[in-house]
Amino acid sequence: MDFKEIHIGNYIKEQMEQKGIPIERACNFFKTGEEEVIRMYGNKSIDTDSLLKWCKLLEYDFFRMYVTHLLLYDGISHTKNNKRIRDSGEKIIFRKNIYTKEIKEFLVGLVASNQKTVSQITEEYNIPKTTLYKWLRKH
After folding, report:
1. Is 127 exposed, middle or buried (0-12, 13-18, 19+ CB in 10 A)?
2. Nearest-CA neighbor of 62 among 7, 138, 127, 117?
3. Hey, which of 15, 55, 62, 81 has its CA 20 to 30 A from 45?
C-alpha cells in the first residue's frame, strides 16, 4: 500500500472487489448511477461525506490511510515536537501507541525486503531507533 501518494478511488475499488460487493449495491447506497460510482473509482480524492459513506458501506476505515500518511510523511512525529519543547524548557509529553498496525507492518516490511535500512527509516520517517528495533524483534 502506498501511503505517500494516496489515490482513494483505487483503494475503494480494491475493497469493493476484495469484499465481492456488486456495484449495484454501491449505486443503491449512494442513490446514484453506475457511471457516478465508476467516476468515484477514478478520483484521487473525494469529499469527506462520501468517504465516510464508503467507510460504512465497505466496513473499512479509509481515514486511517490519511492518518498513516501524516505520521510517516508530514512531520508530526513526536521527536520533532519534543525537540521544540525541549528547547523552550517545557516538559516533554510522550505519546504511546501512536503508530498503527499498518504503519508498523509497512516499516518492518521495508527493512525485511531490504528496500530501506534501519538508518534510512529513522532518518526519513523520524521513528526512534529503539522503537523500530522493538518492532523488528516482534516480527
Report:
1. buried
2. 7
3. 81
For residues 72 and 78, the answer to whether their CB atoms sit within 8 Å is no
CATH number corresponding to 8-62:
1.10.260
Q: Which amino acid is at 15?
A: Q
pLDDT in tens, 86-121: 555 565 455 556 788 888 888 999 999 999 999 998
**CATH 1.10.260 in the chain, residues?**
8-62
pLDDT given for residue 82 in this prediction: 53
SS (H, E, C) 20-76: CCCHHHHHHHHCCCHHHHHHHHHCCCCCHHHHHHHHHHHCCCCHHHHHHHHHHHCCC
**Is residue 89 a contact partner of residue 82, using CB atoms and an 8 Å limit?**
no
- 34, 23 contact by CB (below 8 A): yes
Distance of alpha carbon 131 from alpha carbon 139, whole angstroms: 13
pLDDT in tens, 51-82: 999 999 999 999 888 888 887 776 555 555 55
